[in-house]
Amino acid sequence: LQSDISSMEERCQKSQESLRAEMSLFESKRGIEEAESVARQTELAFIFIPMTFVAGLFSMQVREVADNPPPVYAFVIVALVAVAISYGVRIAQRSVTLARYLRQWDAEIRDQTQFTNKVLP
């Protein structure tokens, strides 16, 4: 009877460990899915925020604009330029080459001004 109890206890421990591992795997997958969802939302924000800004500019009730409204193609062109600038900034922020260049530039400035351990103003 004692051996049966100990074997059942051992099986319970193993199944509990297995369930914990499975739950951990499930939570990891869910975290990855959430990160992918946030990445998609960020991509959409880089499109819609500049377009919303341009739409706000073009919809202002200013006398000069109300008397002579700009054509629709002007909105399209300005919106595309705003989205391109926004994406350009995003790409520049993630660029490894640009980061390397900025670190090199920072090192050169520190060497020339002898600001080795200080924060540059």
Automatic annotation (TrEMBL):
Subcellular location field: Membrane
Bilayer topology: Multi-pass membrane protein
A single cellular component GO annotation: membrane
InterPro entries per UniProt: CorA_TM1_TM2, MgTranspt_CorA/ZnTranspt_ZntB
Domain of life: Eukaryota
The UniProt record lists the keyword DNA repair: no
Keywords annotated in UniProt: Membrane, Transmembrane, Transmembrane helix
Pfam families membership: CorA
GO MF term set: metal ion transmembrane transporter activity
Keyword check for Lyase: no
Main location: membrane
SUPFAM superfamilies: Magnesium transport protein CorA, transmembrane region
Transmembrane annotation, as ranges: 44-60, 72-92
Record's protein name: Uncharacterized protein
